[in-house]
Batch of 3 targets.
Target 1
Amino acid sequence: MYKKLSTLLTILTLFTACQSSQDSVEDNSIKKKQPNVQEITVSREPEVFTLKPETPIVSEVYATFNLTTDLSHLSENQKKMIPILIETSKIMDSLFWLQSYGDKKTLLSSISDDNLRRLVDINYGPWDRLNGDKPLVNSQKEKSLGANFYPKGMTKEEFDSTSDNNKSSLYTILKRNNKGKLITEFYHEAYSEHLEKASKLLLEAALLADDNGFKNYLTLRAQALIDDEFKASDMAWMDMKTNAIDFVVGPIETYEDQLYGYKAAYEAYVLIKDKSWSKKLAKFSALLPILQKDLPIEEEYKTETPGTDSDLNAYDVLYYAGHSNAGSKTIAINLPNDETVQLAKGSRRLQLKNAMQAKFDKILIPISEVLVSPDQRKHITFPAFFGNTMFHEVAHGLGIKNTINGKGTVRTALKQFASAQEEGKADILGLYMVEKLYQMGELTEGQIMDNYVTFMAGIFRSVRFGSSSAHGIANMLRFNYFAKQSAFNFDEKTGYYSVNPEKMSTAIKSLSKKILTLQGNGDYDGVKKWVDEQGKVSPQLKAALDRLTKIPVDIVFNQGVEYLNLK
Ligand SMILES: [Zn+2]
């Protein structure tokens, strides 16, 4: 009975990342330093739930999924490299334990209850990440906001009065010297033993790399791990385009530091690029200018030319480690975070396909079995789920960034509603794109009804995360809009929802027009009124969502060489 919506809606959240529409939602409860473009700044999308205070049962909250993919196209060297990358990932995992809690072994061996030990392991410490970091162990105190990056009992005044220039560095921890005074230590010193090992492993991997770009990146990253200078390797990461394997590794995101959002947490992803989907995405991106011209709205709202050079690719994940594996699982990454690298090279979006498959199989399908009309369940398909998510990403490129009436950018004009409108736009124009691409014969697999019904089921999944995030609000506005237009229908007798395809198609056009108009006019008051009136979960939907209590809220992975058939 974890995920009662009533409690859900009251919690924290979050500001928004974009990325995967359907998965949407979330980022943690703290403000990190906020650069201007939100899409770029927030590069992962954990999910936040609230749970009841009793100790959760692992198998009820987390569905298990095996991380694997087809590796038959890889060369012998590439196959030899993967275990090395996984070894390196495990080091990142140990480092993240040190950052989030401290000594893993002592903690785990002190817990006799199997369920609790597993839960603590999943959470990288004795606090429940899906429940606002509530202690999982009775004797345990509240989690320190600064995790293990700062000494116990450090006050903000103490931090402020410290003159050490490196205190707010991404890559230092703070400690006390023997006189009790705060000092900083760089990661490469504090964790030197681990990092030297990881660095050596990366150099070993580099020797096996067939792709020169990847070889260069791994070599530079090996150096970065032991001197905390990451820029060159970030640049090299953006430069590589043809690699079959990717490896995101190092101290990257700062969400674990809820005190200041300064300190980067170690994580790793071992990734295999899905070349066929990546190719399709590049093709669809190239069609953006044509699609832009065709948007269902007056000319003045579509005068900008969409960029077609976005670096958006699909991957399967072989291994998650450290921060990326803690709490809810990321299904989309947007990196690098270094703004100077972004300015020089842009950024890359990585859609994690098998992780999406996990959420589809283990969460979306079970939800639809409770809420979607039986005759339409056959339309809930993974290609449609994946497609909707990808088209959401591509559709961010459509529409306009500047108002048409001199109110400046859409973002500044719509203030706190800007993100929700932008996410709403990407969701609806993603569907519009799907319709167009079918009409143009560019999309052949499946049928449009799959996208519609899967889209609706995706909203049920997303709104369970709460409605206070930009994605949450966007979802509610859209759900209520479709319900009002009878594109989504609720059968009182059976309690099932269904899609009316004709009305859906009409509603997609009118909603696209509505959002593009509000954005183009920079109509803050109009948006506010809409959000106030329609940005909520209706009692009917709330009752429906309350029927989902038996469905897991997140995924844990079985992962490692033993799941990859590499031996
Ligand atoms: Zn988005």
Target 2
Amino acid sequence: MKIVSAEFVTSAVKYEQYPELKHPEIAFAGRSNVGKSSLINVLVNRKRLVKTSSTPGRTQLVNFFDINDNLTFVDLPGYGFAKAPKKVVREWGPMVERYLAERRSLKGALLLIDIRRSPREDEFNLIAWFQAHGIPFKVVLTKADKFTNNKRGSNVARIAKELGVKKNELIPFSALSRMGRDDVWTAITDLVWPQKETPEDE
Ligand SMILES: Nc1nc2c(ncn2[C@@H]2O[C@H](COP(=O)(O)OP(=O)(O)OP(=O)(O)O)[C@@H](O)[C@H]2O)c(=O)[nH]1
Ligand SMILES: [Mg+2]
């Protein structure tokens, strides 16, 4: 995908504040600090379109970005941050599930999992919500630069087994080396425009 433009649209704390349904939407979901914002920045070739933070649990808003005036990226708030205020923890589930259940422009989701970790209850919950609401999704394994090639392969195999999917369904990605960027874009275009030509493809 050639990036012509990438712009922040709005941040919302509640459903009523979500912007009008304009373009097909892709949601980025995952634990705090997993690298959601970093992935979006790499996808759109921008250093700081989305604020990244070494202090997890800060992004408690749903952030909308307009890509090329034909696609919307949605950076969902992270979960699983032990030090997050109780209110934030309590509100995360209903907020995200309502978004997944009711957002008609949502075409698919990327679930991000740190390649060094194992999927836990929160990840399995998200997968169950995606399935319950008929939202196709792909899994991206972030921070793939933390391993050498060999170890990376064995960790992809491990997580595939834990999720009960095939290895080639998981996309290793690094925001540092940009490894996997093209594969993530392919996954996104497959989700948004299945079996069709991608508009404005290179
Ligand atoms: N080594 C490495 N570090 C990464 C990678 N992606 C993100 N990070 C680092 O991980 C930290 C969190 O990244 P973010 O992109 O802010 O994570 P997030 O999922 O948006 O976090 P929240 O907004 O808090 O939910 C930052 O310090 C990033 O620099 C990666 O691919 N490799
Ligand atoms: Mg973030």
Target 3
Amino acid sequence: MEEVKVYSRASSIPKNPYIGFCPGCMHSTTFKVIAEVLDELGIVDKTIECNGVGCSGLGLGYVYLDNVFCAHGRACAVATGIKRTNPDNIVFTYQGDGDGGSIGIAETIYAANRGENITMILINNGTYGMTGGQMAPTTLVGQKATTAPWGRNPEEHGYPVHIAELLDSLTAPAYIARVAMNSVQNVRKAKACIKKAFQYQMEGKGFSYVEVMSNCPTNWGMSPLETLEYMEEHTLKEFKLGEIRAK
Ligand SMILES: Cc1ncc(C[n+]2csc(CCOP(=O)(O)OP(=O)(O)O)c2C)c(N)n1
Ligand code: SF4
């Protein structure tokens, strides 16, 4: 009988990653999906990852790729330089919402506005995970954070920032999608969009962006399963999923 390969670990994920995310954190699922996509597209050896600072940066020890650990918020600027000088490489950023949507929002918007031929993966977990759960640009109204112990109050803190829609106001970006890691079905859809984003870059179409709705059991103060329910009941009502632009 013909042997069929059903499942194996992606080639860029080591057997014993030297860094671990908290149990139930969907950063790890997102990295797993990215690693699978790079294998399927056959581009592992020419891909360069520009990591943001934060738990997103922990990916350095979780997926073994050529990479640069960028100063907080500056990954899109670093990726711009790398891609322009190495156009044959595939360059992507992996950033948190604090990194790419707050301190680095200028770098994000202007890389997108220039239509740089890079891929940006932004993890929207509604919090500054690594530094202890401060309010992020994406924290929901009423959602608690260490810097908003009574919950986000629009009068004081403004409203959640929809980064994908902000980028959709620009002319240049080629691909913009928002996906989620809260169910098997959504993880499959997320993988398809992440693959498409890399394909856009391979075809030279310009800036591709995937916002990944994720969780943070540690700072949300919930079990991993409770975070997935919270996402379904609250987060995904504010941040709508789907392909927003596919030129
Ligand atoms: C210029 C600068 N400011 C602040 C920090 C501190 N800092 C490190 S990680 C982090 C939060 C990261 O949050 P986010 O980007 O949402 O990623 P997550 O940890 O949730 O994945 C901050 C503020 C820093 N390293 N550099
Ligand atoms: S602190 Fe939050 S975002 Fe960071 S690894 Fe733990 S669960 Fe994930």
